[in-house]
Amino acid sequence: MSDGLQYVGKPISREDGVDKVSGAARYTHDLSRPGMLHTAVLTSPHASARIVSIETQAAEALPGVRVVLTGDSLCYRLGLYMQDKCILARKVVRYQGEAVVAVAADTLDIAREACRLVDVSYEPLEPVLDPQKALEPDAPLVHPDLGDYDHMKGVFFPEPKTNIAHHQKIRKGDFDAAYASADVTLEAAFTNPPVQHVPMETHATIAEVRPEGRVEIWTSSQSPYTVRHLMSVAFGLPHANIRVHVPYVGGGFGGKAGLGLEPLAYVLARAAARPVKVVATREEEFNTLPSRQGLHAAIRIGATNDGKITALKATYTWDAGAYADYGVNIGRAAAYSGAGPYSIDNCWIDSRVVYTNKIFGTAFRGFGHLEILWGIERAIDMMARRLDIDPVAFRRANLLEKGDTTITGERFTAGHGNPVACVDAAAEAIDWGMPSAPPGTPHRVRGKGIAALHKAPAMPTYTSCAAVIKLDEDGAADVLISGVDYGQGTYTVLRQIAAEELKLPIEKAHVTWDCDTSFSPYDWQTVASRFAFMGGNAVIEAAADCVRQLKAVASQALDVSPEDLVCKDGRVFVDGIPERGLDYADLSLGYSFPNGNSIGGPIIGHGRYIATGLTHLDPETGQGLPAQYWTYGAHAVEIEVDTETGEIEILKIVTAIDAGKVLNPKLADGQVVGGVLQGLGSALWEGFRFDEHGRFLNPSFVDYKIPTAKDVPRETEQILLEYPQTGGPYGARGIAEHPMISVPSAVGNALFDALGIEFTALPLNYERILLRILESGERA
Amino acid sequence: MTHEIAMTINGQREQVQVPAGMTLLELLRERLHLTGTKEGCGIGECGACTVLLDGAPVTSCLILAVECDGRDVRTVEGEIENGRLSELQRAFIDAGAIQCGFCTPGMIMSARALLERNPDPSDEEMVEAIAGNLCRCTGYQAILQAVRLAAERARARDATGGGHLASDRNASPTLDRKGRER
């Protein structure tokens, strides 16, 4: 191999494959504990209402009911960044679907029957549903006590007596002057609806509370340590009293980050003194648990006649829904990423996260970037046309390159990757500049579109991760780590890295499944496309620690200096004299001399990684270093539109991402192909619908369509570039979220190419497209 | 009101007392502890609970246990023979058709039903066969590739007069340390 790597970069199959194809993989859904109770929740039928009374006696009298809880008995306010949410609604309900009453009973049927016997009396209030209206001075306040809530200070800036949970600003250069003097200007607005993650395994948690306050939790989570920490803060328990297990997880996509059902399971288990299992129904997954936030984006761009963007202003109004959760951090990330992957000297961004009486928002694969780039990348195309410059050439002229600075003042270096190469690769693969072949049938037209993308992990400045490697009796290695592999394949990649660095055959390297905060070392949480990067670096360091220990013991056993030893194929030997050496199995528990004297001891390596050099952003200008690394990419698409039905067919979609280094091409391909189809879901079909009272209208797979096998594009192409990342393991950077980010933008741009109609609202469903075609026909 | 029913599940005769309202999915998961079959929606929309009833794919959340009296049920656990993965299961691993794995058992059963009635399916027939099984991770292409691969391998094996292919010989899950631990 030219790069000298034996396992890294190879298409190794997933180690969890056998469990998953055989049905042996146990998810939280599949687990039970002796004496375990089952639960049901009663949710609010109103988007905004005062709770007048809750009558629970009939439910409590039902045989088999063990506990009925209401918000009145639960004096806790929880939150990731903003402590604004009760476990069950107290005094008021803030969205239709909010949990109001919870029952734990011997069976699920009894728990559900008990919920039907609860009588809640509400006084409906006027809901605020539109985030733009929620900003008006006389708008009803979703959280009148916002000023009293504890929150992460210095990072988030709620505005008391308003619905603004957070306001992030970026100020670079002088937007007003630059816009006023621009040769050409553009002003446009775009919208995205809230969208659901739809993990195939709905959220599930089992909690067991032992006497004297020890708690054990099994949960479908991306964040074992964050769950433990937030539970500790919320309930005043020492961290050591809380043990969080994460077995196999059936998909997450951001929806299982932070806290989910764990607090509810805990308070029920505590009250019942029995283990309790809480499993979200599919309807609750849609309508009670959080979604992706909606967004209204107003964008202004100024440019010179020759195609240089001189000014960009974006006003992002996020529809946070009833609680802030991750929404405030998405608002923050959307600001520092808010101009797209471009070099812009004069930039002004306001990103406001606004409470409304709707289902609340949280992290979703891409963390706000699909939403903001829907606007930015459509606006870039509009501007290119206004300037009569080819959209690819216009992007090339403005994309970040070595020596540029980002809108937060970060210097762009060669070690950041190559956005221009991504756009070029995507353009070439779609035959950019060549007209589409004529469609085979009448009433169908074709078009091409392109869109760039970027995203960095949005994480605290102190984000860290540790790995432990322990060597077995037979010299095999077990990696302990508490990032979660909920399908991405990171554990397989970490296994490859461990084998590579330990010089072990891959069959002898393993990552231990089932995270357990009692045994696996700390990791912040598994989000933001940062696990392979940070976990990879931690495993490299842990392996080096093992190798150092192996050589130290072997040097005494072999009577040579450790510098003269090398490792290969699970063996330590004197460089150049392979027969003068020892197998790892002879050293892993300590070495015994022929006379019985023993040295060393069990070998356990430790590695860690902590984000370095990140800063808080200046509250007024947003200047600072928010990102450990950026990943750049582009999508290009060719579509065919049926002008009689509004149907879009994806003829070909290309994704070019600068991965830095592809650690496992098979798994990387899987991430891209899956991400692209998820992106097409956001582009073409998905979105929550609410009635005028704020009631959620489509909480099922019949009414909320996600892509099926019938929706696979005719052709999909993945191009993974390898411009190495400074500080990345083998030069790699994260690529998990990026495959879906600019898919809607590329499709929207292709739609204009095909129809000459500007679409500014997602999703681009048949209905919306057909109505616009009919409308434009009438106008013509 | 309970009923005494008898059925064959993965080749084993089972005799159980079930309440009238119990679904086949509940019987499998909660009574018989065959948790390989998953519940993704409980209302027949996602396909995660797909099993074979007399050889035909059904969403077991919509079938009452009492309807299965005297019938033959096969679940993903029944794919394993003598502790070894089936060719179809192996193809899912080799084709990279698994991510989170929650839809995988249902997918495998839908694919199994297809391959039994049609050992040489076209792409369209494969798409049709799994169109009722939702997957949020993979984008389906690798799953379709897995079905294609399994069909090709089965045909190649039949053409060479039976026996297992080299790739299938390595299929024993007991070779996998993690697999054995579970």
Q: Secondary-structure blueprint of this entry?
A:
The complex is a heterodimer of chains A (780) and B (182).
Chain A: H1 17-22, E1 37-43, E2 49-55, H2 57-61, E3 65-70, E4 92-93, E5 99-105, H3 108-117, E6 119-124, H4 131-134, E7 164-172, H5 175-180, E8 184-192, E9 204-209, E10 215-219, H6 224-235, E11 242-246, H7 262-272, E12 276-279, H8 282-287, E13 294-303, E14 309-321, H9 327-336, E15 346-355, H10 369-387, H11 391-398, H12 419-429, E16 444-455, E17 464-471, E18 477-480, H13 490-502, E19 509-511, E20 515-516, H14 531-558, E21 565-568, E22 571-574, E23 577-583, H15 584-587, E24 591-592, E25 598-599, E26 604-610, E27 631-642, E28 648-658, H16 665-684, E29 716-721, H17 743-755, H18 766-779
Parallel strand pairs in A: 1-12, 10-11, 14-15, 18-19, 28-29
Antiparallel strand pairs in A: 1-5, 2-4, 2-6, 3-5, 7-15, 8-13, 9-10, 9-12, 11-20, 13-14, 16-27, 17-18, 17-26, 21-22, 22-23, 24-25, 27-28
Helix pairs in contact in A: 10-17, 13-14, 16-17
Chain B: E1 2-9, E2 12-19, H1 24-31, E3 50-53, E4 56-59, E5 72-74, H2 87-94, H3 104-117, H4 123-130, H5 141-159, H6 166-169, H7 177-181
Parallel strand pairs in B: 1-5
Antiparallel strand pairs in B: 1-2, 3-4, 3-5
Helix pairs in contact in B: 2-5, 3-4
